[in-house]
Amino acid sequence: MQLQAACSPTLSHQPHRRQLVGDPSGRPLSLSSHPVGISFKTSNIREEFFPRLRVVMRSQSTSDPIELDVSLSPRVNSVKPSKTVAITDQATALVQAGVPVIRLAAGEPDFDTPLVIAEAGINAIREGHTRYTPNAGTMELRTAICHKLKEENGLAYSPDQILVSNGAKQSILQVVLGVCSPGDEVVIPAPYWVSYPEMARLADATPVIVDTGISRNFLMDPKHLESKLNEKSRLLILCSPSNPTGSVYPKELLEEIAAIVARHPRLLVLSDEIYEHIIYSPAKHTSFASLPGMWERTLTVNGFSKAFAMTGWRLGYLAGPKHFVAACGKIQSQSTSGACSISQKAGVAALGMGKAGGETVATMVKAFRERRDFLIKGFSELEGVKISDPQGAFYLFLDFSSYYGSEAEGFGAINGSESLCRFLLDKAQVALVPGDAFGDDNCIRISYAESLSTLEKALDNIKKAIPLLKLPVSIN
After folding, report:
1. CA-based angle 183:186:190, to the nearest 5?
2. 384: alpha, beta or left? (left if phi > 0; alpha if psi -120 to 50)
3. SS3 category, 103
4. Cα(340)–Cα(88) distance, rounded to whole angstroms?
5. What number of CA atoms fall less than 13 Å from residue 17's CA on the CB side?
6. pLDDT value at position 20?
7. How many CB atoms lie within 10 A of CB 373?
8. pLDDT (0 to 100) of residue 473
9. Ramachandran region, residue 211 (left: φ > 0; alpha: ψ -120 to 50; beta: rest)
10. How many beta carbons lie within 10 A of that of residue 409, not counting itself?
11. Most exposed of 62, 202, 287, 367 (fewest Cβ within 10 Å)?
12. How far is it, in rounded angstroms, from Cα 244 to Cα 449?
């Protein structure tokens, strides 16, 4: 079988003696026992935006070509892959190849899951809790979540206003899909978690970015927010403490934002509170739904991954008005169904550890704070680096833009956050995430969810690599 390609070199695959055979009428294809080679060409349908790929097949027994459309949907083509995941995977591959890369890209605590939680998961298996749960989650876990929200956040919900999902990420996506229509706008402060704009695009909504800046500790200016709102504004996403900046919105600022939200009848708020327990005194966490008039407007997302070091357990939840939660539950019922039964048992144990996770989580937060303070002191010694002190989470979002335009021998020019991260991966063997993935190309993100000894080595490597860059202008 010979195949032609109009847009790319032929991709030949001949591991099996099989061949697709069919006809242009669209009748089903059958298999025969001849080798097959495959190549791709594009049609001219909307080619400038979404090229359609077709596998062109020509049987050895006939000259009639048969085309198989293997194009992807415009919705998928509009979405960019997660740069955080890509860099983490690249760094992992380098480590597996023997390169001693220090991985500070992923937001994953280095602590083991607390023993009481792990034991609850083990006991769940031993006791036979290994079957499907209700789509919304077990009544036991949803009741525990309601108690947590009441005691810690001042929020009153009933179990039918809670949806347990396979991680907070799934909960966020289901909110966006559940409330946004094509043409709606999702308002997102930048820097933002990498997935927010892409989730908006998956819902055929338009992400509208509200820029902040390091001079305001990456906190949104209410006046700037209001200038971005209109009748298409459907969802405002807030993340406090923030990924990637670690910024924490004070209650007074949230109250100003709430007053603006109240003036826009269509506008809902998604409050991403996954880092609420990883917060450094004197900063305090405020749930947006607890503000006057905001309970009806707010969909609160939280989970177990960060504070309880349960990233692999994949457990998160959504709380909000029943109408919206039920819509998200409908999406979940047709995609993943209920979360892992074993993880849900472990989640009950996590919520039973005491307010804000008790002493176990407090010990983790103390370690994160020590790491933060160490890195802030270390990076403040580097010329030209601007620092905003994070008040929560476990990230530093550092402005390295003064080094843009410089050259490194054997590497080339540094023209943005991505090339700087490639330089640090090459010369310092430290994997970081470029700020352009978060909507601010001036910065790079460092996760300090690693041991202090690992961070000491990473900082030392970076300090040795940075002098290889010659600053384009003097720093005063």
Report:
1. 140
2. left
3. strand
4. 25
5. 2
6. 37
7. 13
8. 58
9. beta
10. 8
11. 62
12. 13
What angle, rounded to 10 degrees, do the helices at 115-126 and 341-351 form?
140
pTM of structure: 0.84
* pLDDT, block means (10 residues), the chain with 476 residues: 41 39 39 36 37 55 77 87 79 86 93 98 98 98 98 98 98 98 97 97 97 96 98 98 98 98 98 98 97 98 98 98 98 98 98 97 98 98 95 98 92 94 94 95 97 98 93 57
DSSP state letters, 198-226: HHHHHTT-EEEEEE--GGGTTPPPHHHHH
- Using an 8 Å Cβ cutoff, are 37 and 3 in contact? yes
Specify whether the CB–CB gap between 180 and 234 falls below 8 A: yes
460 three-class SS: helix
- Express the helix, strand and coil content of the chain in percent, nearest 5 each: 35, 15, 45
Nearest-CA neighbor of 12 among 43, 35, 32? 35
Sign of the CA dihedral with 242 first, then 247, 252, and 253 last:
negative
Which residues 6+ apart lie within 8 Å of 224 measured at CB?
210, 211
Pick left, alpha or beta for residue 362 (phi over 0 → left; psi -120 to 50 → alpha; otherwise beta).
Answer: alpha
Euclidean distance between CA atoms 304 and 451, whole angstroms: 21
Give me the pLDDT at residue 58, please.
57
User: What is the reported pLDDT for 76?
Assistant: 86
Q: What is the DSSP letter of 279?
A: B
- Could you tell me which of 381, 390, 387 has the C-alpha nearest to residue 401? 387
Q: Measured at the alpha carbon of residue 271, what is the angle toward residues 207 and 440, in degrees to the nearest 5?
A: 45
**Nearest one of 204, 207, 205 to 196, comparing CA atoms:** 207
Identity (one letter) of the amino acid at 459? L
For the chain, which domains are there? Answer: 77-106+359-465 (3.90.1150.10), 115-355 (3.40.640.10)
How many helices and strands (H and E) does the chain possess? 13, 19
Nearest-angstrom CA–CA distance, 403 and 473: 9
Task: Give the type of residue at 195.
Answer: S
Helix spans in 97-165 (H): 115-126, 139-153
- Give me the amino acid identity at 143: T
Distance of alpha carbon 160 from alpha carbon 115, whole angstroms: 30
CA atoms of 80 and 102, how far apart (whole Å): 25
User: Residue 64 has which token pair?
Assistant: 């009639």
pLDDT number for residue 22? 41
pLDDT of res. 80: 83
